[in-house]
Specification:
The complex is a heterodimer.
Chain A: H1 2-20, H2 25-46, H3 50-53, H4 56-87, E1 93-98, H5 104-116, E2 120-126, E3 131-136, H6 144-160
Helix pairs in contact in A: 1-2, 5-6
Chain B: H1 2-30, H2 34-64, H3 69-99, H4 111-114
Helix pairs in contact in B: 1-2, 2-3
Classes of the chains: A mainly alpha, B mainly alpha.
Chain lengths: ~160, ~120
Amino acid sequence: MLVKVLFTAFVSFLVYISLVGSLGTDELTIGLIIAGIVGIITRNLVVSDEKKVLDPKRWLNALRYLALYWLYYEPIAHWDVIKRVFNMDLHPSIVRVPYSLKSEYGVTAVGNSITNTPGTVVVDVDEKRGYYYVHWINAPSVEEGFCYNNISKGFEELVRRFL
Amino acid sequence: MVTEIFLVIGTFLVVLGGALSIIGAIGLLRFPSYFVRIHAATVSVIGGSVVPLIGVAFLSYGIHGQDGIVTSLGALGTAAFIFLTAPVSSHAIARSAARMRIPREPLEHDHLEEDGR
């Protein structure tokens, strides 16, 4: 429980400091008190499994996800949509994309990753059957395996290692 | 030397972000329907605001050195917030548009319709 409180308090303190933008004693004291209160109240909402917080491998994997996401997936997706803005080569479809993640954080992270890359937007989620419904700007095939391989496989494998 | 590299990276990212904003705006005007336009909007949001904010973080440190760290952290924090919250609004408007039966044409396949959602 202590880990949960400390981690939540630490995150809210970081947010507070970056928004306040000063390191004076008053600000630090108020920040620590409020971060502590926030940590105690919201610990179970923010942290679901404290073992995962303490695992440095997961943090490294999260960094790996961020690096790959920004240096590989985003540039490719942006370039693809930029080309389509000018040549208007559009083949949009709403396709089913299966997912096999269990945790809510994981499903949200993959959904956000899909939406944040231009060209794919999650329109709806079927949590019972484990499907994202994705609006894809260029769908060469609507077969589930093909969509999974081209839209969410990379994100899912990266996210699975840290959430 | 380091500050010059930061300046170059920062300037590049800010200019790139400006270009992506313009391209996203052109896409919003040219694309034919609501759902396709969301993709152009994503280019504007991610490429046009998160990327230049990261550039601002580099620039602030490159120009002001130690004094610029607070601005850098603020810019990085804002970029992270946009990165985390932009898809939430995208999901919300896309889902509500699907529920409201806003015309989806041109659309080649529609699994959402097939599954009756």
